[in-house]
Amino acid sequence: MSKASLVARFEQIFGRPPALVTRAPGRIEFIGNHTDYNGGTVLGASIDRGVAVAVAPRADGARNFHSTYTGKTVTLPAAGEPAKQTGEASWANYPLGVLAALPHFGLRAPEGFDYLADSDLPTGAGLSSSAAIELASALAFLGLTGQAPDRETVVKVGKHAENHFVGVPCGILDQGVSGFGEAGRLVFIDCAGPRFATVPMPAGASFWIFNTHTKHALVDGLYAARHRECMAAAAALGVGLLVEVSPEALRAAEAKVEPTAFKRARHVVEEIARVDACVKALEAGDLGAVGALLTASHRSSQHLFQNSTPELDFLVDTLAAAPGVFGARLTGGGFGGAVMALAGPGFGAAGAEAVAAAYAAKFGARPDVLPMGVGPGASVL
Ligand code: ADP
Ligand code: MG
């Protein structure tokens, strides 16, 4: 909803206007699949959908959290460390995790407040609504207390909340892109630093997300297995992380690495090289080259990292053959989830509908079709 509607909703719920309103976007993993925990690089897009948060201080110390997502208020008493919430209230763990994270960065948490969150981002679609609510909450709490740390600290507060309070061991991509995003630019992250930069998104390209709503039942175990295989390959190659190995050095050392671990390592090492090539292609404005790298990334996920599924492969095959599409790949961890396509003006709603219909004919269920723009990063509105 608009800022004015959010303010009106806040007044309806809490009987007074908010002191400030913030907003943080969701993100798309553009290219750089499973590179983060290997110390590599990744490119992400901050999208034009996100989470907005309105807050006002309270003198009595009570903390009221309301989300239009549940339509209910979670109230925590004035005193004491907030406990982890369960059941219907568990969404409040995201802002609570931010409150708990602030002191770890030498920052103060506000005492009492009324809080309202609203989102136009589908949850669980691989667009990182969790990082969006973390960053919007962090900027709201910092605004309430008159603190203005640098962007990198805000990003790390969000990641800390997700890792330690919510308990999801995500890397820096989600919060980094939500925090450093800019309209018309992609966010580049060197995960080893971490170091953040932006690169221009050439004009004339659009993003499409096709969310399959499929998720492998064993996805956590499969992630863990891929992580183990990458670390085993690094150990066999005598390095700490795979980022330290070039594609040429890896090929020369094939005999040292167990075959499955070698395939995983080849995906990671070549994917890092593709991220670098993609930055160069973006800077040159060469959308054809960018698209070819995106589809090559998917083929590597499909055949080497083996984190794709028949549903995702079908979407990529169909999109890659569609007129006006530069390239397509699975986005996010894989084993189900969503496919991203980068397209030009020749691909529109009718083209996307044809892809969704072909998918439905084969798999008996429609994917969500979500056109996306690249929007600004987290900010106070
Ligand atoms: P993703 O980040 O891919 O969307 P996650 O499972 O990491 O998926 O995060 C989704 C969770 O984030 C939701 O289940 C909910 O708890 C929380 N969340 C996201 N947006 C909101 C919102 N506007 N209001 C309340 N909770 C939200
Ligand atoms: Mg998430």
* Helix amount: 40-55%
Mean pLDDT rating: 95
Main sheet, how many strands, which sense, barrel? 8 strands, mixed
CATH architecture of the largest domain: 2-Layer Sandwich
CATH fold-level assignment of the largest domain: Ribosomal Protein S5, domain 2
Number of helices: 11
Outline type:
globular
Indicate how many domains the architecture comprises.
Answer: 2
Distance between the termini: 13 Å
Order of helices and strands: HEEEEHEHHHEEEHHHHHEEHEE
Q: Quick one: how many beta strands?
A: 12
Strand percent estimate: 15-25%
Q: What ligand species are in this complex?
A: adenosine-5'-diphosphate, magnesium ion
**Low-pLDDT stretches:** none
Supply the helix-strand structural class: alpha+beta
CATH first level of the largest domain? Alpha Beta
As a whole number of angstroms, the C-alpha radius of gyration is 21 Å
Secondary-structure topology with pairs:
Blueprint: H1 3-14, E1 20-31, E2 41-58, E3 63-67, E4 72-76, H2 93-101, E5 112-119, H3 129-144, H4 151-166, H5 173-180, E6 185-190, E7 195-200, E8 206-215, H6 219-237, H7 247-252, H8 259-283, H9 287-305, H10 310-320, E9 325-331, E10 336-343, H11 349-363, E11 368-372, E12 379-380
Parallel strand pairs: 3-5
Antiparallel strand pairs: 1-2, 1-12, 2-5, 2-6, 3-4, 6-7, 8-10, 8-11, 9-10
The protein binds adenosine-5'-diphosphate and magnesium ion (MG).
